[in-house]
Every structure is written in C-alpha cells, then in structure tokens.
# Entry
Amino acid sequence: MMDKKKMMNLTKKLVAGCLALSVIVAGIVVTPKAAEAEGEIVKGEITYKPMEMATYWDTNSKTAPVLADHIFAGWYTADANDEVTAIKEADGIPANTTTYAKFVPAYVLSVKTQVEAAAEVASTATKPESTFLRVLSSVDSEDYKNVGFEILLGDGEKVLEVAPITKVYEGLKLSETDTEVIRPNGVFGAAATYFTALNMEDISYKSFSSKIYIRPYWTTLDGTKVEGLAKNVRVEDKYSDYRYISVPVNLLTDGATPAEVAAGKVTMTYDATKFTVAKNDGNYRIDTGRLMSEMVYNVVESNGVGTITFVGNLNTINTNIAADGLYANIRFIRNEGYSEATESDLALTKTANDFCNWGEEKQEIIAW
Amino acid sequence: MIYVKPEMEIIELERVPITQLSVVPGETVVVPGVDASDPF
# Structure
C-alpha cells in the first residue's frame, strides 16, 4: 500500500488530468431505473432497446452491446403487441425488422457462494479436512444456450476447468435434511428467475484462506458470450466467527464499446461502527482486481465513518484498459456485536465519476 | 465358404437443435461439480 501523501499526489495528478478536459460531476452512484426511451420495450426490470444487431453481430464475431448497470442478454425481435422472441444463432440477422438488445440488471449475472455447515466454524477442532464451495449465479429466463463460470485459483495462476452448464434451478438446498430453501429472487433480486450453480468439490483445508476468483457468464441464443460481475471469495469468508463479507467492485461502462480507462478514482464510504476493512500485519488489505494490477488504495476509519479511496493505476497511466471487470475486492469484517449484519447493511456510498483514458478524456464508468 | 454381405445400416442423425436451458423444478440439492482438491 502506498503512503497517504504519495497517494494524494497521484490522486491530484489524475483528477487534474481529467479535469483539464471536462467537468467532473462527483455524486452518489445509484442504480438508475431505465427510463423508457422511444421504441424501448420495458418488462419489469428488463429493457429491450432498439439497436442495430449488425453493428455487434456477424457469424464469426459477436460482441455484447452495453448499457449502464445492465448486462446484455441477447438479440430479440418484437411483434405489434411487444411480444418478444429470441433470435437464434442459426437464423442470423432478420431482414427488414427492428432488432432489440435485451438488457437485464447486472445483479442477475453476479456471484454468491455457500459452504456446508461444517465449514462455517473457524475453530481448529471442528474445521473439516475439506469442504465444497457452492457457486451461484442466476438467469432471468431459459433463453440462453449455456451458462458457466470462469474460475481462477490462488493468485490467478491456476485455471479451474469448468464445462458450460445447461441446467438451471428453481430452488436449492444445501442437503436433503436442510429445511432452508433459497430462491433466486431472494438471493439476487426480482429479475433473477433461476439459479445457475456449481460445486467446487473437495477443497482442502490448506486452501480455505486462498483467493478464488469467479466470473459468471452466459451465452445468448444468438451465440454471444457475455461476462458478468466478478468476485473474489475465500472459503473462510463463510466462517461465522470470522464475520467476513466479500464485496467486489466491478467497473461497467455505458457506450457502444467498453470505455477504456488508464486511471481513475473510486471513493466509498461505509458505517465504521458496524464494519471494518480486514487487516493483515496491522495494515488494511484489499484485493486488487484483475483490470489494474497494482491498485493503490487508502482506508480511513474516523468518527464512525469509513472511507476507502482507490486510485488506479501507476503502471497503466499510459495504457488504456477496457473497463469491464473486477477493479478491486474488499473484505469487510462485521464488528463485535454486529455478527448478523449483512452485505445489504453495508450501505456503501460510491463516488466513481472521474475516470479518464490515456488521452485524459473523461470516461463514463460506473463502479458496481 | 459362406459370404455374408453386411447390411448397410443407415442411421438418420437427428439434427440437434440449439435449445434453451433446461429448468430443474422444485428444490434441488445436487448440482454439477468440479474437482478443486489440489491446494492452491
């Protein structure tokens, strides 16, 4: 971690660079409800936006269009009554018909995990030799070819081979005797209809504290592979007496192509009476994401308010990076007396409006 | 010597359509697994 003075200097330099070309509007990032623009079809939290499929799709190359806070979920046609139909890959681009890009809230394609009850305690006496980690994501409908997870173990040097998945689930239990059933809309949000799930089996206790990077994806019926919100997890995050909460910070962009960033700043505040950032050797430790290899960050907890400032990046200041993926991953610890506090109790307030590209042009990036 | 002429068997391969995801109804315990036993 960089010392505070150096970091402030870097922050000033970056922000000054961005400011030179545009006014930075700093503010609270909230998830906007999609305003219904002309020609859009909105069904609940799902938006079908008229877009030119040929701009993004041909038989050999398919890229996903983007919409802030949303994930692309396939190309569709619509009839006069706004009934939508997925375009299949074999059908190609339909002639003389408006094509719609379907967007679902980004939380649908995010990651949550479970461990078996025996691993939920940290004491050595009861710690099992191995456990499984159940990895969960969701879909809004059956209209996908397949779904899956990209999983990197440790510091990312080891890739876990995971075959594409074609079965999805209405409800899940951890064991036959478990009475608790979880539902996708309760775990992820209203637009999540089915779980996608994978068990990482026989994880040795030696790896319980090791980092596991997970990014979910789906392949739409038109054959576009779309990646979702990534997360770092550790088996020990689930130990009830460690009281960890893993909070990923992903960067998403709004535009025809993923915006490119060279540097930027994200500031987050949280209730420091309930939560603290995990430490290692007395220093706050936050996992760097996969976009920017040497994240610089600073954590201050004062008068009940915690403030985390990320500045990225010293080494990429002269290089553009597509802002599409894991930027950083925070491990919060619930403070004594708040063992029941959950991720939603964190109420993180995010300010993430001052990213710029290599040319110091301001880029609209949202930390999610 | 008996010669046996093998019958040509023609199997009409059904073209497998690209289908949607299949939904497992109700409450499920067992989901696909991947071996993660090597320490990492």
User: Anything to note?
Assistant: Chain B touches chain A through 21 residues (CB under 8 Å). The mean pLDDT of chain B is 74. Residues 10 and 16 of chain B are 18 Å apart (CA to CA).
